[in-house]
Structures are given as structure tokens and as C-alpha cells.
Design brief:
Layout lengths: L31 H6 L4 H4 L4 H33 L6 H27 L16 H10 L1 H35 L1 H4 L2 H6 L4 E5 L4 E4 L2 H37 L3 H55 L1 H29 L2 H6 L1 H10 L5 E6 L6 H22 L4 E8 L2 E8 L12 H10 L4 E5 L6 E8 L3
Parallel strand pairs: 3-4
Antiparallel strand pairs: 1-2, 4-5, 5-7, 6-7
Helix pairs in contact: 3-4, 3-6, 3-9, 4-5, 4-6, 4-9, 6-9, 10-11, 13-14
Length: 462
């Protein structure tokens, strides 16, 4: 699952997971162009915006391209299927599928250039062996190749429909809208009394008075204003077809995502091991080495100067207490015993008690999630409260934990200065990566001046 996060980040479906009455500020100031555009409603700007003309160009090009795609796919498919009784059918089908993959690449480039839609390339061919037979077998077994041929077949009827609808609305809209400008051409050059609506041997009806001309122009204006939204709806179907048939399959996308998540988990585990080694080397290990040296010196002075030896032993005793405290903190950082014994409520209360600001903790869970998810939730809240202590300048904070269906929700709120940013190489970005590795989500809402609200969502996996 791809994680989306940022200062004003928002994720699909998150609204249903929030507590009632809580809402973050996910707005943001637009560019100068947007600021100027707000003075003109979007419905009036749409017919002349570049986006509409790109989408309209996509629809216009879809018809001839659809004819080429359909013709190529049907010819290669029918010829290959007809020749399957001989050996020639297999290479013809394979060549047809390879050609569809190439045409699919062009369609992805067209969608990216005109619709702004980024469709990933499908999974590459992986022949099991060498030679032409292995290559043809890989092509024929590739689901991506058959999906792109299916796109070539299905694209033409949709292209005909969208082309007809778009061109009809656009043509009639502008023709009716500009009718008052060229109305007078008819009587002068065509001998007509206006735009004829009906005619037979006895009766003829023309739009030839100011009221009828005005109504015609208004209808044309309506058609012109509606056309961009109709074209946008039609191209939305094209986007769905391109993503579903020209991109990688869901299984392949999930495999790539899991491979990426596995790399994040391995890197996180390696970083944790390095941190533990560093803490042991610089902390408890150094204190124990110094303690051993102090005890050795005390042993030498025991007969010569018992008082000095006693002082050295007393200092060594203090060092032992400090080393034990550091070891307990290190063990708590690996996995706290209170979390295993008593769950998130007690563990998070212990973390909150060590925060430099007062923290209210509310855990509303009727059961416990899996140990792995529980540990991730604990360390997520721990890191967020550390950020509150070090960077927020807050006077108070709160931690809320609750469950929504099969998701575990965490929210840490403080009344500090705000301005927290989850982009770049910050600690919040690393935390978001860890959550993403287990299909989790991190949302940060931290406007300048505060308050800061960080919400984490984890799978329950009980």
C-alpha cells in the first residue's frame, strides 16, 4: 500500500476511520493562477482551459488509433487462431501479442501526455530458457499481453461512442452559441430566412426573430459549458481502461509492493541492530569497563588505604546502578515487558509518564491485536511523544487509541507550535516508511502555529 503523507496529507477512505467530530485542516493556499481563477467559476473557464483541449484531443485521436488497434488485433488473432492447426499459428499469435504490447506502450504515453495519467508498464516477459520457443511460450502465457490485446479490441467501440458524443456536443454547442453572429448570412447568400427547424411542401419553420435567436444562443451556451464535463467523464472511462488493461496486474503490483516493503523492514531491522550495538558500546559497555578498572584500583588500595578503597567501591556502586538503568532502558527500547504483560494501555501510560509535558492517554480496545502490530503501535506513539518533548514546545498532549473494524487507529495531538513536516528525510518520514511496510498509514496535520495532529492507522491482524 502506498503511503500518502504530508503536512496536509490525506488518504483515501480515512474519513470513515476518524472519530466523530474530529476534522483536520487539509486545505492549502493555491498558486497565483488558482487565486486569479477563483474569480471566474470553473464552469465558465472549462471550455477554454488547456485541460479540456487536451482531453478533447485525446478523444479525437482515439477514433483513428482505435481503428488501427482493432484492425491489428483482430487480424493477428483471427489469422493466428486459424493457423493453429499448423505450426504457423503460434508465432503469428505471439507476434500479434508483442505488437499489442508495443501499441499499449504508445497508448500509455498518450494517456500520460494528454490526460496526465501515469500508467505503470506491465511486468516484463520472463522466458524460461533460451531460444524462440521459450520466448513465444512466455509471450503466450503472459496475462499482460492478452490484456493489452483485449484493450485493442474493446477500445474501438468506446472510441466511436466517445468521439460521436464529444464532437456532437462541441459542434452543436458552438454552432448554436455563435448563431446570432452568422444569422444574417442566410438571407444574404443562401436565400434562407434563418436556421430551419422544420419544412415540408406547405410549411417551413425558421429561427428568425430576436427571441428565438436569443434562446438558440442560450441553448448553445449550455451545450458549450456542459461539453468539457462530458468529455472529462468519457476520458475517465479511458483512464480506467488504461489502468486496468495496459498496466500491471494487481498481483504483480502487490508483489512489487511487498518486495519494497520487505526491503524497508530489512533496513529498519538493520538500523535497530546498529542502534542497539551503538547504545551498548557507548553506554553500558563503557560503564562496565570503567567499573572493572575502578574495582581493580580499589582492590590494590584495599590494604594500603582502606578509606580510599571504600570511596572507590562506593563510586563503583553508583556506576553499577547507572549501568543497570541504561540496560533497563535499552531492554525497554527493544520490547518493554509491560507491553507483553499488560497491553497497550499500561505501556502507553508508562511512556506518557516519561514525557516532559502532561499527556492524557485513552485506549478504547476490547481485545489485543497481534504482538507485532502492538509493538509497532507502541513504538510509533513513543517516537511521536519524543518529538512532542523535543520539538513541539507544547504545554500538553493527548494519545487516543481505538479500533475501527479491522484497523487499529492511533492519534497523538499536542498544542505546540506546529510546522511538523513528514516530507524529506525527517523522522516522521522514516516512521511513515515503517508503517507502510505493514500496510499502515501516517497522516500529519501540523499547520504553522499548531496544533499538531498525527494519526496512524495499522492493520489489526488479530
Amino acid at each position: 500500500m502506498a503511503t500518502q503523507f504530508g503536512e496536509y496529507g490525506e488518504h483515501r477512505g480515512y474519513g470513515s476511520h476518524g472519530k466523530p467530530g474530529e476534522q483536520g485542516a487539509y486545505g492549502g493556499s493555491g498558486s497565483g493562477f488558482r487565486g486569479r481563477g477563483r474569480r471566474v467559476p470553473s464552469v465558465l473557464r472549462a471550455p477554454v482551459e488547456a485541460r479540456f483541449w487536451r482531453e478533447f484531443a485525446f478523444v479525437l485521436l482515439s477514433l483513428p488509433i482505435g481503428v488501427v488497434l482493432f484492425t491489428y488485433a483482430m487480424v493477428t488473432l483471427s489469422v493466428g487462431a486459424g493457423l493453429l492447426v499448423t505450426f504457423l499459428g503460434v508465432p503469428v499469435l505471439a507476434a500479434g501479442l508483442v505488437g499489442c504490447r508495443g501499441l499499449g506502450a504508445l497508448e500509455r504515453a498518450r494517456a500520460r501526455a494528454l490526460l496526465g495519467v501515469e500508467v505503470s508498464a506491465p511486468e516484463p516477459l520472463r522466458p524460461r530458457g533460451r531460444g524462440s520457443m521459450a520466448w513465444m511460450g512466455a509471450v503466450l502465457k503472459s496475462g499482460a499481453s492478452w490484456r493489452q490485446m483485449l484493450y485493442a479490441v474493446l477500445h474501438l467501440p468506446w472510441a466511436v461512442f466517445s468521439f460521436s458524443v464529444s464532437v456532437s456536443f462541441w459542434t452543436y454547442g458552438w454552432a448554436l452559441l455563435t448563431y446570432p453572429l452568422w444569422f444574417w448570412v442566410f438571407p444574404l447568400y443562401g436565400g434562407q430566412g434563418g436556421l430551419q427547424l422544420y419544412g415540408d411542401g406547405q410549411h417551413r419553420i425558421y429561427l428568425d426573430n430576436p427571441f428565438e435567436i436569443s434562446v438558440t444562443a442560450l441553448v448553445g451556451l449550455l451545450f458549450t459549458l456542459v461539453t468539457p464535463w462530458i468529455v472529462r467523464a468519457l476520458t475517465t472511462v479511458d483512464q480506467v481502461m488504461a489502468r486496468g488493461l495496459l498496466g500491471p496486474s494487481r498481483l504483480a503490483s502487490r508483489v512489487v509492493e511487498l518486495e519494497s516493503d520487505r526491503g524497508v523492514v530489512v533496513d529498519t531491522a538493520a538500523a535497530d541492530l546498529r542502534r542497539i550495538e551503538r547504545d551498548l558500546h557507548d553506554g553500558a559497555q563503557a560503564r562496565l569497563v570503567a567499573l572493572a578498572m575502578d574495582l581493580g584500583l580499589a582492590k590494590e588500595k584495599l590494604r594500603e588505604d582502606p578509606r580510599a578503597a571504600a570511596r572507590m567501591v562506593d563510586e563503583a556502586h553508583g556506576e553499577v546502578k547507572t549501568a543497570l538503568r541504561e540496560l533497563r532502558d535499552l531492554a525497554r527500547g527493544i520490547h518493554p515487558a509491560v507491553l507483553t504483560d499488560r497491553g497497550l494501555d499500561a505501556a502507553l501510560s508508562a511512556v506518557a509518564s516519561r514525557c516532559t509535558v502532561p499527556v492524557r492517554v485513552e485506549v478504547d480496545l476490547d481485545s489485543r491485536p497481534t504482538a507485532a502490530i502492538e509493538g509497532i503501535a507502541y513504538f510509533t506513539v513513543s517516537e511521536l511523544l519524543q518529538n512532542v518533548s523535543k520539538h513541539s514546545g507544547a504545554r500538553e498532549a493527548s494519545v487516543d487509541v481505538w479500533r475501527v473494524e479491522d484497523r487499529l487507529m492511533l492519534q497523538v495531538v499536542d498544542d505546540g507550535a506546529g510546522g511538523a513536516d513528514a516530507s524529506g528525510g525527517s523522522g516522521l518520514a522514516g516512521l511513515a516508511g515503517r508503517l507502510d511496510a505493514v500496510d499502515g498509514i501516517l497522516l500529519v496535520d501540523s499547520p504553522a502555529g499548531g496544533p499538531t495532529r498525527v494519526t496512524a492507522e495499522l492493520p489489526w491482524r488479530a
